[in-house]
Design a protein that fits this description.
CATH superfamily: P-loop containing nucleotide triphosphate hydrolases
Radius of gyration: 21 Å
Order of helices and strands: HHHEEEHEEHEHHHHEHEHEEHH
CATH class: Alpha Beta
Strand order of the largest sheet: 6-7-8-3-9-10
CATH topology: Rossmann fold
Largest sheet: 6 strands, mixed
Length: 299
């Protein structure tokens, strides 16, 4: 008879134990999957990718931001292979997917940080595909909020805000916009004359978001808003983004490592796989989708 090597305490076989402790994701170690398994499963989901017509329906029938058959990347390396996106004015979208799926590349392409090989990007009725980032910020109303700590630590909070208006026609316009930010966020107003290096992680994130608002954009591209933040600051940042969408009508496209938090926030969720759109739906529906739950929500 073969020797039974089950653990006397847990009753697990060696194979069961190995499966349980090797994994990827945010859930408990008994429910997560290996990176390779996530990639294989995600490829399977991609076999039934949504059509442009279905994406337009999710956008309310009238896309304010659209990406059509986009092929884009860096240098000669193509990352996005026929990417499609439709988002209505004042809606929010969260992009999730495995590492390397092209999520941040979508944001980079919209803002002008990639090489566009073919395809079209529109904001409203305007083709912005080949516009430079400065043009997109000043003329098309698109602002990019970086995932890295991008404040100027030795400048004051107020000076950091002024830097957000560097494309304004007159310096006075940037200062006026900064005052509107201070009126909206007393937390920043209280520190306006202090160097940005004294801010907490959450306050720095608020400053980064606020600096992007100085140019009064209509579209906010937000890359990993929760990265590096304590839970209490994560909630604060998402409350700020929610206010910008609901109160000021901003259109928000987000990449978020915490897929659950991102989908709870967003009107629409997209799952990207290997540079293509694999799945799309209302954020709350994707939260309940068993495939999305297994692959990206840890259970």
């Amino acid at each position: 008879m073969a020797e039974d090597n089950r653990d006397k305490r847990t009753g697990e076989s060696e194979e069961e134990r190995r499966r349980r402790i090797s994994g990827y994701g945010e859930g408990g170690v008994d429910v997560v999957m290996s990176v390779d398994a996530v990639a294989r499963e995600a490829e399977r989901i991609a076999e039934n990718a949504p059509t442009p017509e279905e994406l337009l329906h999710l956008a309310g029938g009238d896309a304010f931001v659209s990406i059509e058959k986009l092929h884009a990347g860096y240098g000669r390396m193509e990352i996005l292979h026929g990417m499609e996106l439709r988002l209505g004015k004042g809606q929010s979208l969260c992009l999730i997917g495995p590492n390397g799926a092209g999520k941040s590349t979508v944001l980079h392409s919209i803002f002008g940080f990639t090489n566009i090989y073919s395809g079209v990007i529109r904001i409203g009725e305007r083709d912005v595909t080949h516009m430079k980032p400065n043009q997109k910020l000043k003329e098309a109303g698109v602002a990019y909020i970086l995932q890295d700590n991008s404040v100027f630590p030795d400048m004051t909070v107020e000076e950091n805000l002024w830097m957000g208006g560097f494309l304004k026609d007159r310096p006075e316009e940037a200062k006026e916009a900064a005052e509107r930010v201070f009126e909206k966020y007393p937390r920043l107003a209280a520190r306006r004359n202090q160097p940005a290096r004294v801010l907490s992680g959450g306050e720095r994130r608020l400053l980064e978001i606020s600096r992007a608002l100085v140019m009064e954009p209509e579209v906010l591209l937000v890359d990993e808003p929760s990265i590096g933040l304590e839970p209490r600051f994560i909630d604060m940042v998402f409350e700020i983004l929610d206010d910008l969408q609901r109160t000021e009508g901003k259109t928000i496209i987000m990449v978020e490592q915490n897929a659950k938090k991102g989908l709870e926030f967003a009107d629409i969720g997209y799952v990207l796989v290997s540079g293509q759109l694999a799945k799309a739906g209302p954020g709350d529906e994707l939260l309940e989708d068993p495939d999305v739950g297994r692959l990206f929500l840890g259970g």
